Automatic annotation (TrEMBL):
Name the UniProt record assigns to this protein: Hexokinase-2
Top EC class for this record: transferase
Record-level GO cellular component terms: cytosol; mitochondrial outer membrane
Domain Hexokinase C-terminal: 189-258, 508-742
Topology versus the membrane: Peripheral membrane protein
UniProt xrefs under InterPro entries: ATPase_NBD, Hexokinase, Hexokinase_BS, Hexokinase_C, Hexokinase_N
Main location class: cytoplasm
Start and end residues of each Hexokinase N-terminal domain: 3-183, 305-501
Keywords: Acetylation, Allosteric enzyme, ATP-binding, Cytoplasm, Glycolysis, Kinase, Membrane, Mitochondrion, Mitochondrion outer membrane, Nucleotide-binding, Repeat, Transferase
MF (Gene Ontology): ATP binding; D-glucose binding; fructokinase activity; glucokinase activity
Species the sequence originates in: Sparus aurata
Length: 752
């Protein structure tokens, strides 16, 4: 146990950047990133150089249905004068033998990938680049130490000029052994050699290998453990070992050695189930395996990159999105083109943000999903930021959402009555702000004609009707309390007002949650749908529909088309479908399905659950990207999706897909916002413009990178605007009450 603890300490020293140069156990990175997964196939050459003779192998790997390996090999010797002569002659000799082997097999015209087992101490900088530190085992060829052995071999092959190979990997024999056995047993992640010398290698988490700046995935580390004790760490134990050697018990009983080894390991780590698999074919097959794996990884990587690149937007493309959004805004505001415009730019009849003189008690109703909130907001005059809120949440049964409009509004009014009674205000007559998060047409603040139900609502007799009248009729039927004024507010405008109460510069509202939308204060003179040219009015953009006339077609990928086609409103809300929470998980799910069907992920095995619409919840995106050590969390999410046998490599990939999809969403959102704030700046003829955006929505609030990428994009595309973001803490209900308060203030000012 004591030796085990000391060794562990030495491993940590070797992995740590500061102590590595002096560590006895060197812990060298091998750049082998994965063990075989069984899908490797093709023909590979291997060279095995580690003594006075060397082997050349041709390894055929088959993967159709069953894993099979066929090998042919030839042993060549190295004359003594070459072992001590010049390096050029040595590598020329190796190239000659290779040519002889290829000729014998009649495959000299094929350019095959080659793996090179080179069993001497080397410093590796890439998988195909290995600098010889010092010769051992009686080799003394000049001009090789300090040089990359791959380039020396390439040079000799090029000199001959009658064949070519693709040298993909240099490995040492320990790694070769692990890879050889790893092909037959996917749990094999450790290589051990106990022969003339001894060494071990194993798969380590990238984040622990400080010599490399990477923290995703894993890499095989060659411990070079034979040197353990070179700095005196084992002095107090050495006599025992000497005695063992003297007694000669290490050599005679080979079996005895392995049996003792197994027993000892099991005793020292009882909680690890360790199996020993003997390598039958030496490390040459392993070199071919490393090459096969590298070949598979490179091909898969290129294919994945090609697919992910379709979802990466350049700065030019983002500027184009901004330009088209600006154009659509103009079309939505103009009387002539409003009908055809995809961005409807609906006037919201909110003329001013709070000035701090508002006061009184206001009710607010927040309806936008299967539950709704009733709030009492008490606004105290002259004290900005002082609004007391009490609220209760009520649910709407499924049958009420899909019954008649009368039933729906009767249920809402019953809940308001219950709330007033609970607050001890039974029978009061109060103004109400109604956050109604469905598309409405307004021609004044206290009217909202429902254009169409969304989010699963289907109550009859509501579309095309004024929801305020429907609400007031239900109040009249109940005859218990009265609403003396009602304002209809869209949730985006509500968010802007909630934040505007804290920060008077807040003139933009943004929601990025299940859906996405924005609003801002526009000059009355530009709003052709409303009479009057004085002052400003908030515009509910309904920007989720941007792209419904094809404005985003050249940025859409086939994954966007699949998500759109399988949604309940194909062809509608195209911008929203590339940005908001309801759809991002779906985009990711479809990319994962595509990757899997091409064998680029999950070993090509599709789980039934991953085929289910909506199974990849957007909250998973936030979780997966939130923590740099989250590979474990990612695996548990993948298990939830029925992918029980996913590997660390799969987790790294899933994370990358999530990050590409979320990045694109944040950039598109930033480009839209850039169009909005630049328009406001130009409206006011300013060179520099500073403004605050009130934001709400789960995606914006919970995703670890969405907000920063969006702000980065916005700053890049609208450099003359200084934009501050404020998260709305109280949702849009408080905003609805404030809008009502502002409206009541203006109304009473008008009466005086």
């Amino acid at each position: 146990m004591d030796v085990s603890i000391r060794f562990r300490r030495e491993m940590d020293k070797g992995l740590c950047r500061d102590t590595n140069p002096t560590a006895a156990v060197r812990m060298l990175p091998t750049f082998v990133l994965s063990t075989p997964d069984g899908t490797e196939q093709g023909e590979f050459l291997a060279l095995d150089l580690g003594g006075a003779n060397f082997r050349v192998l041709l390894v055929k790997v088959m993967a159709d249905g069953e894993q099979k390996v066929e090998m042919e090999n030839q042993i060549y010797d190295i004359p003594e004068h070459l072992m001590r002569g010049s390096g050029t002659e040595l590598f020329d000799h190796i190239a000659d033998c290779l040519a002889n082997f290829l000729e014998k097999l009649g495959i000299k015209d094929k350019k095959l990938p080659l793996g090179f087992t080179f069993s001497f101490p080397c410093q590796q900088t890439k998988l195909d680049e290995s600098v010889l530190l010092s010769w051992t085992k009686a080799f003394k060829s000049s001009g090789v130490e300090g040089k990359d052995v791959v380039s020396l071999l390439r040079k000799s092959i090029k000199k001959r000029g009658d064949f070519d190979v693709d040298i993909l990997a240099v490995i040492n024999d320990t790694v070769g052994t692990m890879m050889t056995c790893g092909y037959d047993d996917h749990l094999c992640e450790i290589g051990l050699i106990v022969g003339t010398g001894t060494n071990a290698c194993y798969m380590e988490q990238m984040r622990n290998i400080e010599l490399l700046d990477a923290d995703e995935g894993r890499m095989c580390v060659n411990t070079e453990w034979g040197a353990f004790g070179d700095d005196g760490t084992l002095e107090d134990l050495r006599t025992d070992i000497d005695r063992e050697i003297d007694a000669g018990s290490l050599n005679p009983g080979k079996q005895l050695f392995s049996r003792r080894l197994h027993k000892m390991v099991r005793r020292l780590v009882p909680d690890c189930d360790v199996r020993f698999l003997q390598s039958q074919c030496g490390s040459g097959k392993g070199a071919a395996m490393v090459t096969a794996v590298a070949y598979r990884l490179a091909a898969q990587n290129a294919e994945r990159q090609r697919i992910l690149d379709t979802m990466c937007l350049s700065r030019e493309q983002l500027l184009e999105v901004k330009r088209r959004m600006s154009e659509e805004m103009v079309r939505g505001l103009s009387k002539q083109t409003h009908e055809q415009a995809s961005v409807k730019m609906l006037p919201a009849y909110v003329r001013s943000t709070p000035d701090g003189t508002e006061h009184g008690d206001f009710l607010a109703l927040d309806l936008g999903g299967s539950s709704f909130r009733v709030l009492l907001v008490q606004v105290q005059s002259g004290q900005r930021h002082k609004a007391k809120m009490q609220q209760k949440i009520y649910s709407i049964p499924q049958e009420t959402m899909q019954g008649t409009g009368e039933e729906l509004f009767d249920h809402i009014v019953d809940c308001i009555a219950a709330f007033l009674e609970y607050m001890g205000m039974k029978g009061a007559s109060l103004p109400l702000g109604f956050t109604f998060s469905f598309p409405c047409h307004q021609s004044r603040l206290d009217q909202g004609i429902l254009l169409k139900w969304t989010k699963g609502f289907k109550a009859s007799g509501c579309e095309g009707h004024d929801v305020i009248l429907l609400l007031k009729d239900a109040v009249r039927r109940r005859q218990e309390f009265d609403l003396n004024f009602v304002a209809v507010v869209n949730d985006t405008v509500g968010t802007m007002m909630t934040c505007g109460y804290e920060d008077p510069k807040c003139e933009v509202g943004l929601i990025v949650g299940t859906g996405t939308n924005a609003c801002y204060m526009e000059e009355m003179s530009n709003i052709e749908l409303v009479e009057g040219n004085e002052g400003r009015m908030s515009i509910n953009m309904e920007w989720g529909a941007f792209g419904d006339n094809g404005e985003l077609d050249d940025f859409c990928t086939r994954f966007d088309h699949i998500v759109d086609d399988s949604s309940n409103n194909p062809g509608k809300q195209r911008y929203e479908k590339m940005i908001s929470g309801m759809y991002l998980g779906e985009i990711v799910r479809n990319v994962l399905i595509d990757f899997t069907s091409k064998g680029l992920l999950f070993r090509g095995k599709l789980s039934e659950r991953l085929k289910t619409w909506g199974i990849f919840a957007t909250k998973f995106l936030s979780q997966i990207e939130s923590d740099r050590l989250a590979m474990r969390q990612i695996r548990s999410i993948l298990q939830h999706l029925g992918l029980t046998s996913s590997t660390i490599d799969d987790s790294v990939l899933v994370k990358e897909v999530c990050s590409v999809v979320a990045r694109r969403a944040a950039q598109l959102c930033g480009a839209g916002l850039a169009a909005v704030v630049d328009r406001m700046r130009e409206n006011r003829n300013l060179n520099q413009f500073s403004v605050t955006v009130g934001v709400d929505g789960t995606l914006y609030k919970t995703h670890p990178h969405f907000s920063s990428i969006m702000q980065e994009t916005l700053q890049d595309l609208a450099p003359q605007c200084q934009v501050t973001f404020q998260k709305s803490e109280d949702g849009s209900g408080k905003g609805a009450a404030l809008i009502t308060a502002v409206a009541c203030r203006i109304k009473s000012e008008g009466q005086h």
